[in-house]
Amino acid sequence: MKKFLIILLTLAIIMPAASAKQTKKDIEHEQNKLHYLNIEWWEKYQDPILTTNIKKLYEENYDLKNTDLKIKENEQIVKVQFANELPTLGFNGSLGRQFRSSNQQFGSMMIPSFAQYNFQLPLTMSYEIDIWGENRLKTKSIEQQLNIVKQAERATYISLTSDFTSDYFNLIKADKFLELQDELIKLQTEIVDKTTIKYNTGLCTINEVLAEQKLLTQLKEEKNNLIEKQDTLINSLRVYLSMRDGDPQRSKYESLTLLTDIPVEYDTSIIENRPDYIQEEANIKRMGFDVRIAKKEFLPKFIIYGQIGLNAYDLGKLFNSYSQLFNAGILPSFDFFSGGRKIAILKLRKFQYEEALNSYQKTILDSIKEINLGLAEYKTAMKNYNESSERLKMQNQIFDLIVDRKNIGAASNIDILYSKEALLLIEKEQISNKINYLISTISLYKAVGGVDLYTINTTQNI
């Protein structure tokens, strides 16, 4: 009874401690996910609706939920492998009746046929002595696989938030374009009407009327394409936010804020922030462990085994002292011949290790390439936006001059309509360049591994 109480007390202490450890892991995982989300970066766009949508993305997106489950799955795989490092203890009881025929002989004595009960209640223990550290290496290999999955989760967060924000800004652009397209169609309709009046009064040819009507149909066709683009982006955002219907919330174009003064020169060590780089590092370590494991497969194994319990042929004598069962020993094992399987596995692991090294080097080159492309895209988008802003200013001045000429009788109403159309077309270019500018900052953020671009030269920690 005393021993039983000690066991219960031990379990009472261990179970809450294990539960607390698991809770601590869950809290750490939740903190990692919030870190991957990097909401502080998205707040720099000064768009509360965007920030709200990203938080909803974090809570509702099914891809993110699946990455969370993959982390938990691989944590359990690590636990399974770690269990292989520990001894096993089990109960394998046997309660049965034996029937023996008279075919057993000891010298001149023949054992007659008999039947008897046999009661065996043993606790069986076995433990593979990890002399060569093989089981520990297997656990380390699985732990590196867990690190790879964690970085895959981080990559998913970076990719999803970046892609969502790009579609979000493109949807705002489509909304604004449709607004301007309606104005263009309205202006062109007036131009067609006025050109028709001129034709009826003999002041222009039928070709001019047809040309203006043709332009009107083109503008209407462009509107149809914009509506399709808008619908596509709305459906895309619904999928990101796990919405079955409804219109995703978004800001007006006029409220968008550009990010300025982003550093445009980075040290090559910035690639160390990227999930794919960290994954390749972890994969090299994992394959290194696997090579060492394959080498240790050539060494002998030693298993300690033992049994303790009760064995009797009469239920009434089961708990007598002479019914106690105990045996223990060591089981050495060594494969003298395995058909070349172990050698093949060792060579396979070495080839995989070399492949991992090559992938690592290629990832470095690809990372530098993507960051340089991101920087070039950002610089070009910034210049194009500035140029289109200047062009819009000049077109505004031209429009004001046309209005002044109209006021003094040197220009007609149709001239104002043409000038207004030109102004709206340049405004569309300026809007497109502004959205491209914003998207280029997102692409650069994604290329450097989801790090705040403003602090990129002061910290390299993910």
Distance from first to last alpha carbon: 55 Å
**Computed Rg:** 38 Å
β-strand number: 7
Low-confidence stretches at least 5 residues in length (pLDDT < 50)?
A: 1-11
Look at the structure and give the mean pLDDT: 87
- CATH topology grouping of the largest domain: Outer membrane efflux proteins (OEP)
Q: Please provide the ordered H/E string of secondary-structure elements.
A: HHHHEEEEEHHHEEHH
CATH class of the largest domain: Mainly Alpha
Helix and strand content put the structural class at: alpha+beta
Tell the overall outline: elongated
Helix content: 55-70%
Main β-sheet description? 5 strands, antiparallel
Give the domain tally: 2
Number of helices: 9
CATH superfamily of the largest domain: Outer membrane efflux proteins (OEP)
Oligomer: single chain
Question: How are the SSEs placed, and which strands pair?
Answer:
Blueprint: H1 2-37, H2 39-42, H3 48-60, H4 62-83, E1 88-91, E2 94-100, E3 104-106, E4 109-111, E5 114-129, H5 134-200, H6 206-240, H7 275-296, E6 301-312, E7 324-333, H8 341-407, H9 413-447
Antiparallel strand pairs: 1-5, 2-5, 3-4, 5-6, 6-7
